[in-house]
């Protein structure tokens, strides 16, 4: 079923994605599966663009589908950890706002505050 509305809540996505997690996995196995899956999907996305050096045209729609698969594994990892995807998203934006209060700044990127990871 295709989602037809413009806004799709991160936690709804996470819940919808969790429907297709293997229920026989332990939480540790789920986290391992998600980690390996994220790396695999990033490899697939890289492969789309690596082929441009061999004369292929990049396929943005293929990349978009692989990015969706990557997001599924991110959601699976969050589920395995007992985290809400929206909390991880908010944490990341808070970190970026603190690091770059006026938007990206190469100087602030090179000279981060102690403890800024």
TrEMBL record:
Pfam family membership, one: MazG
Gene3D superfamilies named in the record: MazG-like
Superkingdom of this protein's organism: Bacteria
Boundaries of every NTP pyrophosphohydrolase MazG-like domain copy: 37-104
InterPro entries referenced in this protein's UniProt entry, alphabetically: MazG-like_dom, MazG-related_GP37
Listed name of the protein: Nucleoside triphosphate pyrophosphohydrolase family protein
UniProt organism field: Mesosutterella faecium
């Amino acid at each position: 079923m295709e989602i037809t509305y413009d806004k799709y809540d991160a936690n709804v996505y996470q819940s919808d994605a969790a429907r297709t997690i293997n229920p026989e996995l332990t939480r540790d196995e789920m986290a391992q599966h998600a980690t390996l899956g994220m790396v695999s999907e990033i490899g697939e996305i890289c492969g789309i663009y690596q082929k441009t050096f061999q004369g292929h045209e990049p396929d943005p729609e293929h990349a978009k589908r692989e990015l969706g698969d990557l997001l599924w594994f991110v959601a699976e990892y969050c589920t395995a950890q007992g985290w809400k995807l929206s909390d991880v998203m908010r944490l990341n934006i808070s970190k970026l706002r603190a690091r770059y209060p006026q938007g990206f700044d190469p100087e602030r990127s090179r000279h981060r505050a102690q403890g800024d990871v």
